[in-house]
Amino acid sequence: MTQKVISLRQAARRPIRTVKVAAVVTVGVIVVGTTVFVVYRARERARRRTLRGRLEQLKDVATDPAKITRKAGRALEKERDRLRAELRDELKKELVDHRPLRERVLTAAAGAAANAAVPLLMRQLQRRSGQKSSRRP
Description:
This protein is an all-alpha fold. Helices cover 93% and strands 0% of the residues. The chain has two domains: 1-62; 64-105. Helix 2 (51-63) packs across helix 3 (65-96).
């Protein structure tokens, strides 16, 4: 092979090597960054659970009670929104069912009674079929 062909092949391989190196570096940065983040969060969580961490939290509450009040208020609002959405869904279901209340209650009670009665009826049928088979010679 001539020197020109060899140099062209090497030139063609350079971008591939560059991309490989870039890919390896990118994966390395992602793995190291993720590991650092996970370790940091685990240490932070462990620190908050220690006695010193609890004391710091109590100190923060004592110095800024409004912050805790805001957090509790946000949690309360979130729970209220969740309950309102749940109530909205239940009301939608009620609006779809146009039957009178007494009919819905009776239907629900009958369904529950039927669900409870099915196992009892199955046992009775099995006993009767077992008795019939035992009578036959």
